[in-house]
Design goal:
Elements (H helix, E strand, L loop, with lengths): L1 H13 L4 H13 L3 E2 H8 L3 H13 L3 E6 L2 E8 L3 H32 L6 H25 L3 H10 L4 H4 L1
Antiparallel strand pairs: 1-3, 2-3
Helix pairs in contact: 1-2, 2-4, 3-4, 5-6
Length: about 170
Amino acid sequence: MERFVLHWGEMGSRWGVNRSVAQVHALLYLAGRPLTADEIVETLGIARSNVSTSLRELLSWDLIVQHPLLGDRRDYFRAETDLWTVLLTIVEGRKRREIDPTLTMLRLAKLDAAGDEETPEDIKRRIEDVLNFVEKLTAWYEQVSSLSRSTLIKLMKLGAKVSALVK
C-alpha cells in the first residue's frame, strides 16, 4: 500500500497534480472503506491543512465523495473505485478545465488575427491549424466518450487492429 501511495503521488506530480492530492486519492482508493481527514493525516503523515486542501481538490474533480455516518459528527471520504469511471471523470475534468478554455482563446485569437492586417498570414494559418486540430480532437473525444463501456473495452482490445477497418 505504501509503495502504491508513494508512486501515485510521484506520478501525480508528473501529471501536474499536487503530490499530496494524488497520495490522498491513492489512499482513499485503496482503503476499501470511507476515511476521516484525521485517519488520512495519521496514515500519510502530512499536515491536516494539506489533507483538507487535497480533499477539497479531489471533491472538485468528483473523484471522491463526502458523506456523514449516522451518530458521528465527522465527515468521511471515499474514492470512486471503478477505474473506468475514474478515467472518464479525469478526462472530462481536464477537458472542461484545459481544453474548453483553450478552444475559446483560439477562436478569439482567430477572430482577432483575421481583423488585424499586421498579423502575418503564416501566423493566422498556424492559429487556425491549432484551432482545427483541437476542434477535431474534441469532436473525437465527444464521440468516444458517448460509447458504452463494453464498446470502449472492445476498442481497447482491438488496439492497432482497428486501423485495418479504416484502410
